[in-house]
Design goal:
510 residues; three-stranded mixed sheet; mainly alpha
Length: 510
């Protein structure tokens, strides 16, 4: 037991000794760390003081440098200001010198103007003295002399102008005819349309004479029903196996022909059936006209026309003029007008459309008052056709004076298409007789030297003697001849009467 107590006591003593030793060791370590920290603080303080002194030196150096730069800039600005002041001073001196020079020149000009004014006064006096001397010598006053001089100058200018005009006329005559012939010949050669001859009546073949009686009906009721429904005259005479349809309206005549052919083929002929056949024929004819109008527009290369215009144009499918189908004539005119426009540099599209639509009024000229040219132009404008094209339509027979090249081209193309060989059917005897009649009517008047029927009888040109006929008499002759033609001559369309009265002066240089 005592031994255990001794061991325990030894352990306690050892523990206490270890604690004391550890305390002493920790205290020494803490003191050493404190000393080390103090040493580090002193070192940092030293470094901070050193850096502060370095920064202070750098700041002083920068301030000194900036001060030097500022002083240098100030010295440069002062130098520049000094130079500018010198330049301004020099300019002021120059301006002063120039002002003195200008004043000197103004004084010199004033003196010179006084001298010139004095000279002008002397010159006016001399001129007045000369005029008085000339008037005294010539015996003429100033106004009389001026008038004589102006008259002499005017006469000389007139002679020179007349000479130049004659030279220009000779040049134009030598070249224009050849050029025009070449253009027209080229257009005709490039287009040659087929010619069809149609009449103003239609003939419907029937199987037998018994069919004529059935067409007439009891007490003529069938023929009356046909004529009432179609608006045509049905001629049933002794012609074997044929019935003739007559009407001034080609569309009505075609409707009647189609309806009558259907009735003859069907065999059932009575008023109710007649109305059904006419209605069906009207529909078929309308379709045919619409198709023909579209085909013609495509062939003539005139597109985008209004449907209403095409509807009216389709009626020309059954319209003829001296055996020439007007729709084919319109297509031909469009091609020729386009060719001529291309040759002379005009608007090809306007000329083509104007040629295609120039006879549009013929489709309704028997229903509307006025000439077909003006009617056609009114229809074209009403349905939105370009005004340039409408002008070509209204001017192609000169009811309206042509104001564009394209309108003149359409006139030419219309005359070429209608007057070319084989285009229209008319006996040579009646044609020549009509032309001779026109010329004879003109020659019946006093003072008429010559008369020429030109453009296939569409124009009558009368040349009168200027010594016997004055301007008023010329107008009276034109009016009287026009009235006489209207009363005594049968002719298509219209005839233009032109009276030519001119005075020619001819001299020879020998």
């Amino acid at each position: 037991m005592p031994a255990i107590i001794a061991v325990i006591a030894g352990l306690i003593v050892g523990t206490l000794i270890g604690i004391g030793v550890g305390y002493l060791l920790r205290r020494r370590s803490a003191q050493h760390s404190l000393e080390q920290a103090e040493e580090d603080a002193r070192q940092l303080l030293t470094e901070a003081e050193t850096r502060s002194r370095e920064l202070e030196l750098e700041t002083k150096e920068d301030a000194l440098r900036l001060r030097n730069e500022a002083e240098a800039d100030i010295r440069e600005w002062r130098s520049e200001l000094s130079r500018m002041e010198n330049r301004l001073s020099q300019r002021e001196e120059n301006l002063d010198r120039k002002a003195q020079t200008i004043e000197t020149r103004e004084e010199a000009l004033h003196d010179r103007s006084e001298t010139l004014r004095h000279s002008e006064n002397e010159l006016e006096d001399l001129r007045a003295e000369q005029l008085r001397t000339i008037e005294r010598v010539s015996g003429l006053g100033r106004d009389e002399a001026r008038n004589q001089l102006l008259a002499a100058v005017d006469e000389e200018i007139r002679e020179e102008a007349g000479r130049r005009v004659r030279e220009m006329e000779r040049d134009v005559e030598s070249t224009a005819a050849t050029k025009a012939q070449k253009i027209i010949a080229t257009a005709i050669q490039r287009y040659a349309g087929e010619v069809t001859a149609e009449t103003t009546v239609s003939v419907v073949p029937i199987g037998s004479d018994d069919m004529k009686g059935r067409l007439i009906g009891r007490e003529g009721r069938n023929i009356r029903a046909i004529e009432a429904a179609t608006g045509v005259d049905l001629i049933i005479d002794d012609t074997p196996d044929a019935v003739t349809i007559s009407s001034f309206d080609p569309v009505r005549r075609e409707v009647a022909r189609v309806a009558l052919a259907g009735l003859v083929e069907d065999g059932r002929i009575h008023p109710t059936r007649i109305e059904e056949a006419v209605s069906k024929a009207q529909h078929n004819v309308d379709s045919t006209m619409a198709e023909s109008a579209e085909q013609a527009a495509t062939e003539a290369d005139v597109l985008n026309l209004a449907p209403d215009v095409m509807k009216v144009f389709g009626r020309l499918r059954y319209r003829t003029s001296y055996g020439q189908n007007v729709m084919r004539h319109s297509v031909e005119t469009a091609h020729i007008a386009a060719m001529i426009a291309q040759e002379v540099g005009a608007d090809e599209n306007v000329a083509r459309a104007g040629g295609f639509l120039h006879d549009l009024g013929k489709a309704v000229d028997h229903e509307v008052e006025g000439t077909h040219a003006l009617i056609g132009a009114d229809i074209a404008r009403r349905y939105g056709v370009r005004d340039e094209v409408a002008h070509c339509i209204e001017a192609h027979h000169e009811e309206v004076p042509p104001s564009t090249v394209e309108a003149v081209i359409v006139q030419m193309a219309d005359a070429i298409s209608g007057g070319r060989p084989g285009a229209r059917r008319e006996s040579l005897d009646s044609y020549v007789k009509r032309l001779e009649t026109l010329e004879q009517i003109a020659k019946e008047h006093n003072g008429v030297e010559q008369a020429f029927a030109i453009q296939a009888g569409r124009e009558l040109r009368i040349v009168v003697s200027p010594e016997q006929v004055d301007d008023l008499e010329s107008m009276r002759i034109a009016r009287d001849v026009s009235q006489k033609i209207e009363e005594s001559v049968d002719y298509p369309g219209q005839i233009k009467v032109t009276v030519v009265r001119e005075t020619r002066a001819t001299e020879y240089a020998r």
